[in-house]
Amino acid sequence: MQKSTGCGDKPDRLIPGTLLLRIPFHSVRNDPISVISTGAERQRGGVEKSLYADWCHHNATASHSGADSPLTFAIPQLFIKRMPLPFARFARYYDRFMERYVDYPEWVDYVERIFRRFRRQPKKLLDLACGTGIPTVLFARRGYQVIGIDRSAEMLAVLEAKKGSLPITVINADIRKFTLDTPVDAAISLYDSINYLLTPEELERCFICVHRALVPGGLFVFDLNTVYGLEKQWGSRTITRENEEIISIWQCRFDRQTMLSTLRLVFWEKLPDGTTGEKYEEIHQERAYTTDEVRQALERAGFSRCRFFHHGTFLPVSPFSVRMMVVAEKPRRHPMPDLQSPGKKLK
Ligand SMILES: C[S@@+](CC[C@H](N)C(=O)[O-])C[C@H]1O[C@@H](n2cnc3c(N)ncnc32)[C@H](O)[C@@H]1O
User: Fold this and answer.
1) Ligand 1: does its nearest atom lie under 6 Å from the Cβ of 222?
2) pLDDT tens, per residue, the chain with 347 residues
3) Is 43 exposed, middle or buried (0-12, 13-18, 19+ CB in 10 A)?
4) Of 57, 63, 141, 301, whose CB neighbour count within 10 A is largest?
5) Could you tell me the pTM of the whole model?
6) From the CB of residue 44, how many other CB atoms can be counted at a distance below 10 Å?
7) Ligand 1 centroid from CA 130, angstroms
8) 185 and 323: one domain?
9) CB of 190 closer than 6 A to ligand 1?
10) Ligand 1 pocket check for 124: Cβ under 6 Å
11) CB 69, CB 19: distance < 8 Å
């Protein structure tokens, strides 16, 4: 696996703002959420816990309106960033879990239909935020040379283990700051990965890296959960999901102000004796973007002819589309240089 040198010279910026979370006051100790509740206890003259100082330092606020009512916390994004990266624990279950919910071969067919519709025959593909590489492997089996980039070492380890002799290069990097040695003909990113970029600035930083990685005329194809999808379909609800390996609880909350959907994923491995093993927990955040926001970020990064489709079709995105497919082109030629600008002489 290659390690990226990265193309961004700035350190990761913290995301401004906070996330509001409401949790039951009597939550279980020793998980990240309940560590926060000890902060509130201290505010009320209760137990002191070391994380409180950190938490307080970053201007979190908490309120508690009664013994049995939930606590409302403003949790700094920094706190969430300190938790293990999403997918660290879930990686080993990801493939078998996802195969129940996503028809990846059909999704790859759809991407190939997009290539044909836009009259492209790419050979070298970049799979952004490829994760365990379910689509990466499918594309490689269909004859493409694929570079897969992801920041999760755990997800990439799964891809490394199954790629065999397929023409796949794996790079452990952040999609907001990467460079490739040689350009690719097309870039793709599937299954919500771009929603994991949490601000329009992050979106633009990623798009600039993709633009730089593409040949002139290269195509960028990616899907996104829509605002409707994150707000209404995922919304603020709790569901349980189970397969042969794990039992999981998916607790979502959508915040219209920040457009962030926060998912608290708790899961237990099933043991052969019928009991459950250790409890794991991850916090995932996805940001909902309007088509205008995505178009602006793409155009600022240098892409043109941006199209938005109701996912799986070539129909426009409707107010009830839960997922959209975005297609953008890197122009074949750079824009004409500005001959009027200082320093440029007309012959
Ligand atoms: C829902 S998974 C999708 C994985 C894969 N594309 C698929 O279709 O199965 C989202 C992936 O995005 C990756 N990811 C999120 N933010 C990232 C970032 N800033 N840089 C690199 N990878 C990122 C995660 O590690 C994870 O593997």
Assistant:
1) no
2) 655 434 332 333 333 333 334 333 333 223 333 333 333 333 322 222 323 323 333 333 333 333 333 334 444 444 544 567 899 999 999 999 998 899 999 999 999 999 999 999 999 999 999 999 999 999 999 999 999 999 999 999 999 999 999 999 999 999 999 999 999 999 999 999 999 999 999 999 999 999 999 999 999 999 999 999 999 999 999 999 999 999 999 999 999 999 999 999 999 999 999 899 989 999 999 999 999 999 999 999 999 999 999 999 999 999 999 999 999 999 997 655 444 444 444 33
3) middle
4) 301
5) 0.77
6) 10
7) 6
8) yes
9) yes
10) no
11) no
